[in-house]
Structures are given as structure tokens and as C-alpha cells.
Amino acid sequence: GENVEQHPSTLSVQEGDSAVIKCTYSDSASNYFPWYKQELGKRPQLIIDIRSNVGEKKDQRIAVTLNKTAKHFSLHITETQPEDSAVYFCAASSPTGNQFYFGTGTSLTVIP
Amino acid sequence: KAGVTQTPRYLIKTRGQQVTLSCSPISGHRSVSWYQQTPGQGLQFLFEYFSETQRNKGNFPGRFSGRQFSNSRSEMNVSTLELGDSALYLCASSFLDLHTGELFFGEGSRLTVL
């Protein structure tokens, strides 16, 4: 089955700096790659996603890039703010879209 | 509209007991999936149901089972509890629209096994 690896497991950045989280996947048939943010004590929520027919997608300070050949995708957060502090999970979905494989998460701390 | 509701939110069991967790999806969502969340392991897929049928199952022992009812509500059951089953169990519902596969998570049921 699919295997998703996520790095780093923890990340600390100064407020205003950029943060990058990287994930790799193993199944070339995976075609949908969402990113979820989980604040402390809260439920995971989708922040951005990308499909395999797109190389990059942006939403304000957040962007995701996908390299299908290398089977890796990354989350980029620019101008980080303290409220960006959370655990971020990448995921890859099965071609049918009914099974998601999550990375182990990255705990991001933005230092004011 | 109401979000995904999970009950109970917290529970404490002892080894050998069994537990049943409940999940009510967002109205109109027919896909319900379950995940186990533990520190360092992230979110591990348990199973997914659609229209009362289990379509996928993760790599968990047979002690973990689930079902879905005609109103899309789902339950998962863990029998013969072990200490390692202590975790946050998250349920997620999805409309499985062709344009988005967004999962809507509940707040989870935190299980502690003593």
C-alpha cells in the first residue's frame, strides 16, 4: 500500500520567516494530496490540497508544490504568524479517493 | 450545518474490556472513515464505510471492527482492549465530491486503557 513520509517532525521559526514541510509518497497512482492543520486540542482541518494534474497551488500565505516524477510534495508557509503554530499533516489518497494515508505530522512553532 | 459528532469524547477502560465509539457524519455525507491518532504515529487509517459497506480496511487486528447504518452513522468497536489501544480515535466524513476529497473530522474520542 501507499507509504507517506513527512519531514521534519518538529520545526521552529521566527515570526515572519518562512516554513517548509516536505512529504514523499510511494504509490504513483495516488492523485490527491491534502494538507491538514491540527491546533492543540482541536480537530484536523483542511488548509490546502493539490491534485496530480497541477504542479503548484497558492492560497494567500500558503502554497503547495507537487513533483510527480520524484513523488514528493511540499507545504510552504510565508510570513509566519504565531497562529500558524500547530501540527501539520500531509496525506495522499488512493485513486478511488476513499482511503487516505497520512504522514506522521510536523509540529510547527512560530516564535514571536 | 452541524459538523461531525463523536461520542463519547472521553472514556477509560481496563485491559480485556471492549468499547464502542459512535460517529454521526455531516448530513448528506455518505462516506465515513476512522483513524487512530497517537503521538509520533500520526493518523493511521482504520477503515472506511460507504452506504453501509466497508470499502477499505487498514492494517489493524481483527479486534477493531466497525459498521455503518442506513442513516450513515457509524460505530467502531474494539474488543479485548490492550494498553496500546490508548489513543484518540477520529472519525471523518466526506461527500467524496469529484472536485474535493476533503475530510471533515470530528473532535475525536479519547480512549485510555488501564
Explain what you see.
The complex is a heterodimer of chains A (112) and B (114). Chain A has 112 residues and is mainly β. Chain A has strands at 4-7, 10-14, 19-25, 32-38, 45-51, 56-59, 62-67, 72-77, 86-93, 100-102, 106-111. Chain A is globular and about 40 Å long. The model of chain A has no long low-confidence stretch (mean pLDDT 94). Chain B has 114 residues and is mostly beta strands. In chain B, the strands form 2 sheets. In chain B, strands 2, 4, 5, 6, 9, 10 and 11 form a 7-stranded mixed sheet that branches. In chain B, strand 4 (31-38) and strand 5 form a beta hairpin. The N and C termini of chain B lie far apart (37 Å). At the A-B interface, strand 4, strand 5, strand 9 and strand 10 of A face strand 4 and strand 5 of B.
Compile the SSE list and pairings:
The complex is a heterodimer of chains A (112) and B (114).
Chain A: E1 4-7, E2 10-14, E3 19-25, E4 32-38, E5 45-51, E6 56-59, E7 62-67, E8 72-77, E9 86-93, E10 100-102, E11 106-111
Chain B: E1 5-7, E2 10-13, E3 19-24, E4 31-38, E5 42-50, E6 53-57, E7 64-68, E8 74-78, E9 87-94, E10 104-105, E11 109-113
Parallel strand pairs in B: 2-11
Antiparallel strand pairs in B: 1-3, 3-8, 4-5, 4-9, 5-6, 7-8, 9-10, 9-11
Instruction: Give the H and E element order of chain B.
Output: EEEEEEEEEEE
Judged by helices, strands and strand pairing, the structural class of chain B is mainly beta
Biggest pleated sheet of chain A = 6 strands, mixed
Task: Please bin the fraction of helical residues of chain B.
Answer: under 10%
Uncertain residue ranges of chain B: none
